[in-house]
Specification:
Blueprint: H1 7-32, E1 46-48, E2 62-65, H2 67-75, E3 80-83, H3 87-92, E4 99-100, H4 107-114, E5 124-127, H5 135-145, E6 151-154, H6 157-163
Parallel strand pairs: 1-2, 2-6, 3-4, 3-5, 5-6
Length: 172
C-alpha cells in the first residue's frame, strides 16, 4: 500500500508547488511591468497608402505599403528601403541599396545612415524577415520618435519580397 506522504512523493509535491509559485510570481511581475509581454497581439496603429501621391499618413502614425507598392517604389527609386534585420541576415540577402538598421543600433548611428530627419524627402520603407517579424514596426516607431515623418512598413518582409520576385542583393 502506497503512503500518501512518502519521501519521494513529498519531493514531487514540493517541486510542483515551487513551479506553480514561480509561474504565478512571473505572471504577476509581468502584469505590473510597463514593458511586460502582452498576452494578446495588439495591432500597430497604421494607415494604408492607396497611392503614393495621395498624401502622407498623419504625423505620428506609420503607413503600410503593399508588395505591389513596394515594388513600384523600388523601381521608380522613390523610397529608401530600411532593413530592420540583424546584420547576419542582411548580408545573406536584402533589397538592393537598402540601409541596415539592426535592433539595438543607437539612434545616432541610424541618423548617420539616413541623414537628418529634416532633410529626408523620400519615404522610408522599413521591412524585416516576414509578416510575423515585428522588428520593422518597432524600428518604424523609433524613426518617428527621431523626427522622420514619412515612414512606412512593408509588412510582408523580405520573404514577401522574394516571393514577388523582387531583386535581391548579397553583401560580401
Amino acid at each position: 500500500m502506497m503512503r500518501v506522504f512518502s519521501p519521494k512523493l513529498t519531493v514531487c509535491y514540493e517541486i510542483l508547488f515551487l513551479c506553480a509559485l514561480a509561474l504565478g510570481l512571473a505572471y504577476i511581475a509581468n502584469m505590473h511591468n510597463p514593458k511586460g509581454l502582452s498576452w494578446e497581439q495588439v495591432p500597430l496603429k497604421t494607415t494604408t497608402v492607396v497611392q503614393q501621391n495621395d498624401g502622407l499618413p498623419e504625423a505620428g502614425t506609420v503607413g503600410v505599403v503593399t508588395t505591389e507598392q513596394a515594388l513600384d517604389l523600388f523601381t521608380e527609386k522613390g523610397a529608401v528601403f530600411v532593413d530592420a534585420r540583424f546584420p547576419e541576415d542582411f548580408s545573406e540577402g536584402h533589397v538592393p541599396d537598402a540601409v541596415n538598421i539592426s535592433p539595438g543600433m543607437f539612434s545616432e548611428d541610424a541618423m548617420e545612415l539616413l541623414g537628418p530627419a529634416e532633410n529626408q524627402t523620400l519615404p522610408l520603407i522599413v521591412y524585416c524577415s516576414s509578416l510575423s517579424c515585428r522588428m520593422s514596426n518597432e524600428l518604424a516607431e523609433n524613426l518617428l520618435m527621431l523626427g522622420y515623418s514619412n515612414v512606412y512598413v512593408y509588412e510582408q518582409g523580405f520573404e514577401g519580397w522574394i516571393e514577388a520576385d523582387g531583386l535581391v542583393e548579397m553583401s560580401r
